[in-house]
Amino acid sequence: MMRLAANTLKELKLGWRSYYFLLVVGVAIAYFFLVTFLIPEDLTVSPDVVVLNEMEEGSQVMENLFGGDMESDKLLLAKDRDDLEKTMNRRFNSVGIVLKGSEREPAFELVFQGHESQDIRELLRLSILQRTGALNSEEGYGIEYLEDRKPVDEAIPFNKSFLPVLLMSEAVMLGMFLVFAMIFGEKSEETIKAYSITPGRIWEYLGAKVIVLAILGVLFTLILTPMVVGIGPRYGELLLIVIIGSALSTSIALIFASFYDNLSQSLVPMLGLSLVFGLPMISFFIPGFSPWYLRILPTYTILFALKGAVFPGSTQVGISSLWLIALEGAIAFAVAVMVYGQRVRKN
Amino acid sequence: MIEVEGLYHSYTNDERYAVRNVSFNIKEGEIFGFLGPNGAGKSTTQKVLTGLLPLQKGSVKIAGKDAGKPDSSFYNMIGVSFEQPNLYRKLTGLENLDYFAKMYDVPTEDPMELLRMVDLEEAASKRAGEYSKGMQQRLVFARSLINKPKIWFLDEPVSGLDPTTSATIKEIIRRKKKEGVTIFLTTHNMHIAEELCDRVAFIVAGEISLIDSPRNLKLRYGQKLVEVEYRLDGSVKKESFSLLQETDKAKLNSLIEKGTVETIHSKEATLEEIFIRVTGRELR
Lengths: 347, 284
Prior knowledge:
The complex is a heterodimer of chains A (347) and B (284). Chain A is an alpha/beta fold. Chain A has helices spanning 2-17, 20-38, 59-66, 81-90, 118-131, 151-155, 163-172, 174-189, 191-196, 202-229, 235-257, 263-278, 280-285, 292-295, 298-310, 322-346, and strands at 48-53, 75-77, 94-101, 106-111. With 284 residues, chain B is α/β, with parallel strands linked by helices. Chain B has helices at residues 42-49, 72-77, 93-101, 111-117, 133-143, 163-178, 190-196, 214-221, 246-258, 271-279, and strands at 2-9, 19-26, 31-35, 57-62, 65-66, 78-81, 151-155, 182-187, 199-204, 207-212, 225-232, 235-242, 261-266. Chain B starts with a strand and ends in a 5-residue tail after the last helix.
């Protein structure tokens, strides 16, 4: 353990003097500004509705249709057909509704810009039918949610929803990039050869790198998370996920790095690895797209566990799912130690 | 202390051996020079002896321990000074030694004392990357002594050093020999081998062609000539005389009796000349 501590202290000094700590702090602050000031809180785009009432008595229909939105600046009343078209021409994101018939037998004409998809057109049609009572939505069917998605998921502001992704790409996968830099620096200095003729073990040598990169991940998490979401997250759980995730990604990167001598040689596998491990981000933003080949990636579990820790109750993937990631990390580390042991003796 | 028997090593795991049937023994407290040109198999042999390369064929015992299965006790008793300055360039000289000292399970030297020994005390808190090449080499040399090794492997220990620093390093090597340290010195520098080694081995193309003491080699391969400068008719003349031929011996005696001899040197062969004669190769 003394040698592991000495190796860790050495890696901390080298990391500090290579500006890794400064880099992590700088990136965390930059991401805070990005999330807070550049990404909007809400991306919902609702179209303006231009209404032309050609009914003789249409006040109840109007009330049914628009209810509390009557005073909204999104609802515009046209005087005649010409006015409706001119108003719609001025507003690219608008739809027109022409009310016809009578209170008892209302009819509608929908006016579109032309760029709306068939799905949107059908959705609007059904929405109007439902609001006017022509389509009974309360009977004949029920709704069951297989995943207990809490309202909290819907209440997460769009910009803050990026936080788990940033934590995974930086705090967890940071090790993947920095470990390549660390290993290639040492390969050019040939210091591993000097280490190899001491009683120091390979696991102590590599373990120190895993520890230091986990510390950097924790530092990033502890800077960015409170700045973005305050004290809401379950921090103990969050840090545990970051540590386990970082250990796994660092160990996998160590295996790859052992086969190359410099950064240019390893560029393709390094980018390939980060691309594959980053794929679960697609499922994060499009939850409906979660095929098996994304779900089996360790970063899938890590990403959703991070979301659960940052926004408690937003997902069912919890800390209990991490035992498998920890096991994968342990196996990857054992493989890295074995590969390094062989390669050091080959050189 | 070091017993090597029938050592072979192939980097390609076939019959193309970098080292072939190498055998030698080194006694405790002896300085053994391993001499040969670049690519002769010196470094390969040293790497197998220090556990850096696996033992494929043959037997290597270091203080009774099998170099093919090195354990902590094996590494605790050896020190290796590499030719390349393989240091942590972002750590200071002192931090480099401190770090490596913590890797051993045995009592270690005081890092500051080692730095003082190689004249790096002033640069102790300077990063190794800012050291000159000579300073880095001295730091690597000092690092190899951190665990008070019983068996010390030195690879070109004075290569690229100025004469004063070389003299300091050679003096430390002599002192360690007196303390009983067994030294395996790899070099292609015949002068340092002549000065320091009790015995030398010549290795060419992976095979040892000769093992003996420098003195014996000189006696065996020397020409038994003396080179004399003497005064004749107001000018200085230079001539070589055989110590075996009667006419030369008589002429030399006559010059000595006349008192005209100004300088006289035995013309023994250098190790380099012997190496070329024995192996047919130059030390490049």
